[in-house]
């Protein structure tokens, strides 16, 4: 293990174990989205991902704006939240077109009405000065082709996937549809599984809106606290030519959350 002032480098075998552990632990916060298959009234197709976020003691649903905007008019959008299928078309999403993200507050009444209980959420916070990165970043999402619900035969093909990256790119080369994205290097041709075996890099369809999570450590409490995580972006796409994962920055999401929090507090102060 090597250490510098900003990051800690670890051996590849440990890195893959960290990827698996984070995917397993924090995959519970990730939400698959489904739409009806127009070829079968009994079939639902995966169309995107999102995640539950915790910020200032409130619970939010976060996704990519294009996931909800690309729906045909009147199309039902269903999310599986905490094992419960719920219709989310009526949720009042606050959006950022510049960052291609959408956020909705999940208040207690909505959760109770939809019988959503015992959910897990990803903590959203600014970078702590003492945290040191392990340079391990994991996108967690639900690939569309691998997430199909066929009610006619009782099939539940729901597959959570974790994709790891080891290089963050502050200034992306790809031409993107958003302002000031953050990127991560990913070459599908050199993709491997957790055992180091070469695999097909696959397609990212259905992962849009999923979180990218970074593994960090507080060196002051290395042996007692162990590894921790930090939210590092909302996945929006992959650029083939530059081999860059494109994400909205954490600051973009925090800005929306702050605006919602301010409006709630302002409304409460007037009553």
From TrEMBL:
<dbReference type="InterPro" id="IPR009003">
    <property type="entry name" value="Peptidase_S1_PA"/>
</dbReference>
<dbReference type="InterPro" id="IPR043504">
    <property type="entry name" value="Peptidase_S1_PA_chymotrypsin"/>
</dbReference>
<protein>
    <recommendedName>
        <fullName>Trypsin-like peptidase domain-containing protein</fullName>
    </recommendedName>
</protein>
């Amino acid at each position: 293990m090597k250490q510098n002032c900003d990051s800690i480098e670890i051996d590849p075998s440990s890195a893959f174990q960290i990827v698996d552990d984070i995917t397993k632990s924090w995959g519970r916060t990730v939400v698959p989205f489904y739409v009806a298959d127009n070829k079968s009234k009994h079939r639902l197709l995966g169309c995107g991902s999102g995640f539950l976020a915790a910020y200032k003691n409130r619970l939010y649903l976060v996704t990519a704006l294009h996931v909800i905007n690309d729906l045909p008019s009147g199309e039902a959008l269903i999310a599986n939240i905490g094992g419960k299928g719920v219709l989310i078309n009526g949720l009042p999403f606050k959006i950022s077109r510049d960052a291609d993200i959408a956020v909705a507050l999940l208040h207690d009444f909505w959760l109770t009405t939809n019988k959503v209980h015992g959910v897990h959420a990803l903590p959203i916070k600014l970078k702590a000065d003492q945290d040191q990165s392990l340079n391990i970043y994991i996108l967690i999402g639900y690939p569309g082709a691998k997430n199909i619900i066929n009610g006619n035969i009782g099939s539940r093909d729901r597959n959570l996937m974790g994709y790891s990256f080891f290089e963050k790119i502050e200034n992306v080369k790809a031409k993107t549809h958003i302002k000031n994205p953050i990127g991560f290097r990913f070459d599908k041709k050199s993709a491997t599984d957790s055992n180091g075996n070469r695999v097909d890099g696959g397609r990212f369809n259905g992962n849009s809106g999923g979180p990218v999570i970074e593994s960090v450590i507080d060196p002051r409490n290395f042996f007692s606290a162990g590894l921790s995580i930090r939210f590092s972006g909302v996945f929006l796409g992959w650029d083939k030519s530059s081999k860059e994962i494109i994400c909205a920055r954490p600051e973009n999401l925090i800005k929306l959350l702050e605006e919602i929090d301010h409006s709630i507090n302002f409304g409460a102060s007037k009553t």
